[in-house]
Design brief:
Low-confidence stretches: none
Helix content: 25-40%
CATH architecture of the largest domain: 3-Layer(bba) Sandwich
CATH superfamily of the largest domain: FAD/NAD(P)-binding domain
Structural class: alpha/beta
Radius of gyration: 24 Å
Distance between the termini: 40 Å
CATH class of the largest domain: Alpha Beta
Largest sheet: 9 strands, mixed
Mean pLDDT: 92
Length: 493
């Protein structure tokens, strides 16, 4: 029988979150042993999964890159291959590669309170199951279901005789040259696919049930790039990151406090981009700005395609799909050789890994967030869930920094277990940050997400600057965190 390996930390997921955690450990806890497990054959997470045309970041790269590793490419809105190249650089620079194990699909993790260890079971490419033990478990699996996208239940979709594609499973090297394409959906994926396919396809139609709010920004930010050329890389990165984050925060807060004013600004911007192609029915959403994620249109590329007649937007409801296109309830028909169902993603907590404590399943929705990453009453366990209204990676940095402080504190005290304890009779008021947004995928999946209180430390919210200040100043032994020393059975609080 093979001897089981034991590590200080097991990191699940080799994407933005997992790599960020590993790099912080290399800088702040160099003596800690860790292993990173990922079901895919290479690093990248989401950026390796999605292969649809034109895939790119939907926020600026100064808030999507790490605080500790400057983004040095001229593209402020970057393509997937440049994001992966950046991650490759981080992995190499901080010695992460030697800790990575691919084609390891983590199935479950069970905490043993007697040994103070997680038993993490994974299945390899050969179908064999192995177990690794860890003192601490970090889940960097993102929040998408990698196997099952959202099923929009499109009427009679099976009747279509052309090519049917979901962006999550884009066929390699598919040639759509000269084909009539209908993209069902109006989110970030649809916007990217439409602008990328336009010109090569005969025509691309975005079919939406309701319009979307758009924001236009240059793919190359000349002021940011000038700063990078005259200042040291870290100074320029810090300034550009601060500028971008403050702009996100200002726009989000202004959209909440003065939605009509922000709507007017965005409408004027869209009108200017589209000219005589603008119309109220297709470009005036029935909801306020930032009630759903604002769709980024870099360089106004999709609008350019519409102006030039290569693409169009149609608003309507599907009556049924026929062999050569889509018929709408208002009688219009959209002819298609290809239908792309960019109808949304499905949320999944913890990468569908079964988490348990002494064999008792952990149901995330029955726990409260603690310090933006841990679960109430779950020992030595953290999950990364990024920001929905700004760059995902902003939370990676503040959480990874705090966790490394926790690890070093535990070493100093010579304790083995850290559990954020919330008594059953705490009477803490629950609040769901997803209620800030009306996006379908968030509303469909919010029942899967842990509860959030209205104040720290039992919350997760969407205000980065407040989180950053709280996490930086938060004491590790704050009265809520319970520490245990397994060797002699003593409990420290």
């Amino acid at each position: 029988m093979a001897k089981s390996e034991t590590f200080d930390v097991v990191i699940v997921g080799a994407g933005i979150s997992g790599i960020g955690m590993a790099a912080h450990m290399a800088m702040q806890c160099p003596g800690k042993s860790y292993v990173m497990l990922d079901r895919r054959e290479q690093l990248g997470g989401t950026w390796d999964l999605f292969r649809y045309p034109g895939i790119r970041s939907d926020s600026d790269m100064y808030t999507f890159s790490y605080a500790f590793e400057p983004w040095q490419d001229d593209e402020t809105v970057a393509s997937a291959d440049k994001i992966k190249a950046y991650l490759d650089k981080v992995v190499s620079k901080y010695g992460v590669a030697e800790h990575m194990r691919f084609s390891e699909h983590v199935q479950s993790a069970d905490w043993d309170s007697k040994t103070g260890l997680w038993a993490v079971k994974s299945k390899g490419a050969d179908g064999k199951t192995s177990t690794i033990h860890a003192h601490f478990l970090f889940m960097g699996t993102g929040y998408y279901d990698y196997d099952n996208p959202h099923d929009a239940d499109i009427p009679s979709l099976s009747a279509f005789k052309g090519k049917l594609i979901h962006p999550q499973f884009w066929p390699e090297d598919y040639d759509y040259t000269g084909k009539k394409v209908v993209v069902i959906g109006s989110g970030a994926t649809a916007v990217t696919v439409v602008s990328s396919m336009a010109g090569r396809a005969a025509h691309v139609t975005m079919l939406q049930r309701t319009p979307t709010w758009y924001g236009v920004r240059p793919r190359h930010d000349k002021w940011s790039n000038r700063l990078r050329r005259v200042l040291p890389a870290r100074w320029a990165h810090w300034i550009n990151r601060e500028k971008a984050q403050r702009l996100h925060e200002f726009l989000f807060h202004r959209a909440r406090s003065r939605p009509e004013g922000v709507a007017n600004v965005l409408t004027r911007m869209t009108k200017a981009e589209l000219g005589d192609k603008w119309n109220e029915a297709d470009f005036t959403p029935p909801y306020g700005p930032w009630e759903q994620r604002l769709c980024l249109v870099p360089d106004g590329d999709m609008f350019k395609s519409i102006r030039e007649g290569q693409a169009s937007v149609v608003t309507g409801n599907i009556a049924h799909v026929v062999k050569d296109g889509i018929e709408l309830t208002d009688g219009r028909k959209l002819e298609a050789d290809v239908i792309v169902t960019a109808t949304g993603l499905r949320l999944s907590t913890l990468g569908k890994v079964k988490i348990s404590l002494d064999g008792v399943p952990v149901e995330p929705s029955q726990h409260f967030w603690y310090r933006n990453c841990m679960f109430s009453n779950v020992p030595n366990f953290a999950v990364l869930f990024g920001y929905l209204n700004s760059g995902w990676t902003l939370r990676v940095d503040i959480v990874a920094d705090w966790l490394c402080r926790l690890f070093n504190h535990m070493d100093k005290w010579k304790v083995d277990v850290a559990t954020p304890v919330l008594p059953d009779d705490s009477q803490i008021e629950a609040w769901q940050p997803f209620d800030l947004f009306s996006s379908g995928y968030l509303q469909r999946g919010k029942h899967l997400i842990p509860k959030s209180a209205t104040s720290a430390p039992w919350r997760i919210h969407m205000y980065y600057r407040q989180d950053k200040a709280e996490m930086k100043d938060a004491q590790i032994d704050d009265g809520w965190m319970q520490f245990d020393r397994l060797a002699d059975g003593r409990r420290l609080t």
